[in-house]
């Protein structure tokens, strides 16, 4: 009984410590979020936004998330490996899904963190993230089929792009097993992508949307030309299929997340429109939620523009170019 009591006390102490650490972390994140919001300027360009409000200011947050995701992945891996699910098909499929999800979220988190360190990579984050996901997922899928163990995986990957694999050779009459595993891994990859998207602000999502539409339009044609066979697969076909599904999934997730942000922005916009003296902080919040779409609406509304200029151009030192000067003079 004494040992159990000590263990419970230790567990209680550990829980309290974790709770304290989490509260401190949460408080710190809220403080940083407020700092990003304070730095937001409606009249500044996208480079300023990325540097002072968006990706670059969230690097520590991305790093912590990547570390936590990796730890969770390792814990889940050892837990699942310790369980014997070889005789239970359902448990095996659940294990595949959970491991795929934790793995993809871990490396996606690290990719987002690494890309946030460079301003050029930040602008093409979605493209890089998608292609790395496709490469990893495609490599795993093909290794399931071929049972090969080539040490030079990257070279082998490109050498076998157009190689045709007979699914019946590996799975016999149970070809459905391959497509079920493929579906589970693809679903986990898409879900991890959604979790990553939820960490992005409206400015980052808007940049990603342009990349995604370009990819989707190209892939729709390429996939149609290459084609997909249920019993015979080629790596290039699998890659294109993954890309099409992921980009289509992104489009749906992107639209959903943006619509929620736009709803908040529209509510603020309407509330401020009814006021005789709009609140500058609320106008900034509208821009923070609505991105470029609502920036244009704010700047095209005269009384909003006047409030914004008066708050962001308080002196000639705040002017960056001649256009700023013209705006400044228009309200003086």
Keywords:
14 helices; two-stranded antiparallel sheet; 332 residues; 2 domains; single chain; mainly alpha; globular
Query: What's the β-strand tally?
Result: 2
Structural class: mainly alpha
Largest beta-sheet details:
2 strands, antiparallel
Helix share, percent: over 70%
Q: Distance between termini?
A: 79 Å
Question: Mean pLDDT, nearest integer?
Answer: 75
Element string (H = helix, E = strand)? HHHHHHHEHHHEHHHH
Rounded to the nearest angstrom, the radius of gyration is 25 Å
Provide a count of the helices.
14
**Which word captures the global form?**
globular
Instruction: Kindly estimate the percentage of residues that lie in beta strands according to DSSP.
Output: under 5%
Strand line-up of the largest beta sheet? 1-2
Q: How many domains comprise the coordinates? A: 2
Flag low-confidence runs. Answer: none
């Amino acid at each position: 009984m004494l040992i159990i009591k000590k263990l419970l006390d230790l567990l209680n102490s550990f829980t309290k410590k974790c709770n304290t650490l989490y509260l401190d972390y949460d408080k710190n994140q809220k403080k940083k979020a407020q700092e990003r919001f304070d730095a937001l300027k409606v009249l500044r360009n996208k480079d300023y936004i990325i540097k002072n409000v968006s990706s670059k200011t969230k690097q520590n947050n991305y790093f912590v998330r990547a570390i936590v995701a990796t730890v969770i992945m390792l814990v889940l891996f050892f837990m699942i490996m310790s369980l014997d699910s070889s005789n239970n098909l359902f448990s095996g499929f659940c294990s595949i899904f959970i491991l795929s999800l934790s793995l993809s979220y871990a490396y996606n988190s690290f990719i987002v963190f690494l890309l946030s360190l460079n301003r050029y990579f930040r602008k093409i984050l979605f493209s890089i993230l998608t292609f790395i996901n496709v490469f990893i997922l495609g490599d795993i899928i093909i290794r399931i089929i071929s049972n090969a163990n080539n040490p030079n995986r990257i070279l082998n990957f490109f050498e076998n792009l157009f190689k045709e694999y007979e699914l019946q050779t590996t799975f016999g009459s149970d070809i459905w097993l391959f497509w079920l595993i493929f579906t589970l891994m693809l679903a986990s990859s898409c879900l991890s992508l959604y979790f990553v998207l939820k960490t992005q602000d409206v400015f980052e999502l808007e940049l990603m949307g342009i990349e995604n539409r370009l990819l989707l339009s190209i892939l729709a044609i390429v996939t149609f030309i290459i084609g997909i066979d249920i019993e015979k697969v080629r790596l290039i076909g699998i890659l294109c299929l993954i890309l099409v599904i992921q980009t289509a999934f992104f489009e749906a997730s992107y639209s959903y997340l943006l619509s929620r942000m736009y709803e908040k922005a529209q509510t603020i916009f309407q509330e401020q429109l009814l006021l005789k003296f709009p609140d500058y902080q609320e106008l900034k919040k509208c821009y923070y939620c609505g991105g470029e779409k609502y920036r244009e609406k704010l700047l095209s509304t005269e009384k909003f523009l006047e409030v914004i200029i008066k708050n962001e151009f308080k002196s000639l030192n705040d002017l960056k170019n001649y256009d700023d000067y013209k705006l400044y003079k228009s309200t003086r």
